[in-house]
């Protein structure tokens, strides 16, 4: 491709609204342009990379036994009403009406559409298992689109759905998809972790997220420093053991703590460790209030709380709700004397001896508080967020944290959608049963951004060779020089004939502009035809390492072939 004939609008300055490297560089290198908040055009270079990522995804999906189809982005509301998500998905679902006042949604995901399709076409166990996938644009009305392609309102996604007659079949396909995803992200040369995750609004129980490690990631990954254990911080179980102090239990005492409201305030005021304080928080789970206790140096994990109590929603009670339910302010809540709401506590709380808690009266706390003596709880369970330095749940090493960008997610949905939408089959005995389902998504456009986030330097992008828009950036320093123009055209023709993808910069621009653009775009190899063109000598530069070679025309194809293979 001749550079003068395509659209690569590079920028010298960093756009003011671009916060992260991938966003900055994809804009500056002319890969994308913003049309609206969270909505982007993919320019020619980005389109080539997207197609290469999609090709990898298709190869791995097909190898895993999935079959491609394409479903509508415009979805009728009736399907979402059948599943119940029309009412629960939230404002992220883009809803609209047609001219007949019928409700539709722009597809945020396709569980409902695929379930309706398969229930109408598959009636027997003999047609199962079946795995179908598509690559399509999705729409979610993000409250705060940010970080360019990493969190947008319109994005490209691969979504796959599997249907089964038994759990063993679902497990088999889930494992194949897990491996396929690992292959996809490995082939994209990403540094990633597959982590245990929460299924959220998708439903289902067993699920893993594929996280690309990055300081700009919005999710925190807890992983072992000595094994392959990794989990989203919300899902990492805590296996720490707590030794109960042998000190004698002292009489309960109520003390004045004027204006001491936070754990830090109280622990400093009373000269006790935060680990001896009991943090008491009132939560509303669906329509039920629950008092949750954790140690003062720990934080309540609301995802664990939701899962333990099998709730659909969980939120902290407001100050008004706390006053109505417990007749006290939020800063003074404690478990002593509470009888009208259920109390559950993290395991660590049971080991506290002579601790501190709120007295349900403003400006007062209790000291010498001892669980099971001074108050009762329904159960002690793992309710807190894991922390760095905690033992790894698999018993190997300790936990460290990293930030991650979610690029893929695999779910075991079970019968969440098939039961709600009556997607059933006849088994071997002629009995009607709901299909078991799995769901598997890859953010294709987000993967593009994740690669850009990990592969760059101070001068621009540095594409892995298998994802680069072109293999070679051929630069003619001065096309008005006859020797340079002739040699450049000759090399351009030979490289293309040898099956290399070449971007040929034959523009009438200053050499400095061409070299700066080349570094920004970040193709694996740069071939510069300059002052030694009359001698048949060109310069070859490896973008990744900065290595530079002077090469005779006759040796160029061999060198380029060898270098591309080595990258």
UniProtKB/TrEMBL annotation:
A Pfam short name: tRNA_edit
GO CC entries: cytosol
Molecular function terms from GO: aminoacyl-tRNA deacylase activity; ATP binding; catalytic activity, acting on a protein; proline-tRNA ligase activity; transferase activity
Primary localisation category: cytoplasm
Location(s) in or outside the cell: Cytoplasm
EC number: 6.1.1.15
Domain of life: Bacteria
Catalysed transformations (reactions): tRNA(Pro) + L-proline + ATP = L-prolyl-tRNA(Pro) + AMP + diphosphate
GO biological process: prolyl-tRNA aminoacylation
Keywords: Aminoacyl-tRNA synthetase, ATP-binding, Cytoplasm, Ligase, Nucleotide-binding, Protein biosynthesis
Occurrences of domain Aminoacyl-transfer RNA synthetases class-II family profile (ranges): 49-464
SUPFAM superfamilies with a match to the protein in the record: Class II aaRS ABD-related (SSF52954), Class II aaRS and biotin synthetases (SSF55681), YbaK/ProRS associated domain (SSF55826)
Classification via PANTHER family: MITOCHONDRIAL RIBOSOME PROTEIN L39/PROLYL-TRNA LIGASE FAMILY MEMBER, PROLINE--TRNA LIGASE
General function of this protein: Catalyzes the attachment of proline to tRNA(Pro) in a two-step reaction: proline is first activated by ATP to form Pro-AMP and then transferred to the acceptor end of tRNA(Pro). As ProRS can inadvertently accommodate and process non-cognate amino acids such as alanine and cysteine, to avoid such errors it has two additional distinct editing activities against alanine. One activity is designated as 'pretransfer' editing and involves the tRNA(Pro)-independent hydrolysis of activated Ala-AMP.
Record text on subunit structure and interactions: Homodimer.
Domain notes: Consists of three domains: the N-terminal catalytic domain, the editing domain and the C-terminal anticodon-binding domain.
Family: Belongs to the class-II aminoacyl-tRNA synthetase family. ProS type 1 subfamily.
Name of this protein: Proline--tRNA ligase
Organism whose genome encodes this protein: Pseudoneobacillus rhizosphaerae
Gene behind this protein: proS_2
């Amino acid at each position: 491709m001749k550079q003068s004939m395509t659209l690569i609008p590079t920028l010298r300055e960093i756009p003011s609204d671009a916060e992260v490297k991938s966003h900055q560089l994809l804009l500056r290198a002319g890969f994308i342009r913003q049309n609206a908040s969270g909505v982007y055009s993919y320019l020619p270079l980005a389109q080539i990379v997207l197609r290469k990522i999609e090709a990898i995804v298709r190869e791995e999906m097909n190898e895993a036994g999935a079959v491609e189809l394409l479903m509508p982005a415009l979805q009728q509301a009736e399907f979402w009403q059948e599943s119940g998500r029309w009412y629960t998905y939230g404002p992220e679902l883009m809803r609209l009406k047609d001219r007949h006042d019928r409700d539709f949604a722009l597809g945020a995901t396709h569980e409902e559409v695929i379930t309706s399709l398969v229930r109408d076409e598959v009636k027997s166990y003999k047609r199962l298992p079946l795995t179908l996938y598509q690559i399509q644009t999705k729409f979610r009305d993000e409250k705060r689109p940010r970080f360019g392609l990493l969190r947008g309102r319109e994005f490209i996604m691969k979504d796959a759905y599997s249907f089964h007659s038994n759990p063993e079949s679902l497990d088999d396909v889930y494992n194949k998809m897990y491996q396929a995803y690992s292959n996809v992200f490995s082939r994209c040369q990403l540094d990633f972790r597959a982590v245990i995750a929460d299924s959220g609004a998708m439903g289902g129980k067993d699920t893993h997220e594929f996280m690309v490690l990055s300081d700009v990631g919005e999710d925190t990954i807890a992983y072992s420093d000595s094994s392959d254990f990794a989990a989203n911080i919300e899902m990492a179980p805590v296996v720490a053991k707590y030794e109960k102090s042998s000190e004698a239990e002292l009489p309960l005492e109520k003390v004045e703590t004027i204006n001491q409201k936070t754990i830090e305030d109280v622990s400093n005021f009373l000269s006790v460790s935060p680990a001896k304080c009991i943090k008491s928080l009132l939560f509303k789970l669906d329509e039920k209030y629950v008092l949750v206790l954790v140690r003062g140096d720990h934080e309540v994990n609301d995802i664990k709380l939701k899962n333990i109590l099998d709730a659909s929603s969980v939120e902290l009670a407001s100050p008004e709700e706390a006053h109505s339910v417990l007749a006290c302010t939020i800063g003074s809540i404690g478990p002593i004397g509470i009888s009208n709401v259920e109390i559950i506590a993290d395991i660590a709380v049971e080991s506290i001896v002579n601790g501190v808690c709120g007295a349900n009266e403003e400006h007062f706390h209790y000291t010498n508080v001892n669980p099971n003596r001074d108050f009762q709880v329904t159960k002690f369970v793992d309710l807190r967020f894991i922390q760095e330095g905690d033992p790894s749940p698999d018993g190997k090493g300790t936990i460290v944290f990293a930030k991650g960008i979610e690029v893929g997610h695999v779910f075991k949905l079970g019968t969440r959608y098939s039961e709600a939408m009556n997607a059933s089959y006849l088994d071997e005995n002629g009995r009607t049963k709901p299909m078991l389902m799995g769901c598997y998504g890859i953010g294709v456009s987000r993967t593009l951004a994740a690669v850009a986030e990990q592969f760059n330097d101070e001068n621009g992008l540095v594409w892995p060779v298998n994802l680069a828009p072109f293999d070679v950036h051929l630069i003619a320093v001065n096309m008005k020089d006859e020797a340079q123009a002739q040699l450049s055209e000759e090399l351009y023709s030979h490289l293309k004939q040898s099956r290399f993808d070449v971007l040929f910069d034959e523009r009438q621009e200053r050499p400095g502009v061409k070299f700066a653009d080349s570094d920004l775009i970040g193709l694996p190899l740069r071939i510069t035809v300059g002052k030694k063109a009359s001698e048949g000598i060109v310069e070859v530069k490896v973008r990744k390492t900065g290595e530079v070679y002077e090469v005779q025309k006759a040796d160029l194809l061999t060198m380029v072939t060898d270098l591309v293979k080595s990258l």
